[in-house]
Design goal:
Helix content is 78%, strand content 0%. By secondary structure, it is an all-alpha fold.
């Protein structure tokens, strides 16, 4: 999971998809990726107070809820990819890119 957090702290949104694919191909459990995404969103909330960082967390939570409830594997993969991208987009919006 440290690798996931490192990437989410500095990667561009369009780079996160390849991380998801690589890690899934290496048999990393999807829940491990979700844990990293949730931690990353939580970091945003601790760094920057305000509605945008709260919205980052609620958005990621909603995507995770959809992932847990979806029956279609393609839908699950799309929600995971979206969450990885969204958390980096929120990070950039909040101006916390690259800060540990």
């Amino acid at each position: 999971m440290p690798e996931i957090l490192t990437v989410l702290r500095s990667a561009r949104a369009d780079e996160t998809g390849s991380l998801v694919v690589d890690m899934l191909q290496k048999s990393v459990a999807p829940q491990t990726l979700w844990d990293g995404i949730m931690l990353s969103a939580g970091e945003l909330l601790t760094r920057v107070s305000g509605i945008t960082s709260v919205h980052a967390n609620t958005s990621i939570n909603a995507l995770h809820y959809g992932y847990k409830r979806a029956d279609d594997d393609q839908t699950k993969r799309m929600l995971l990819l979206q969450a990885m991208s969204f958390v980096t987009l929120f990070r950039d919006l909040l101006g916390t890119g690259g800060k540990a």
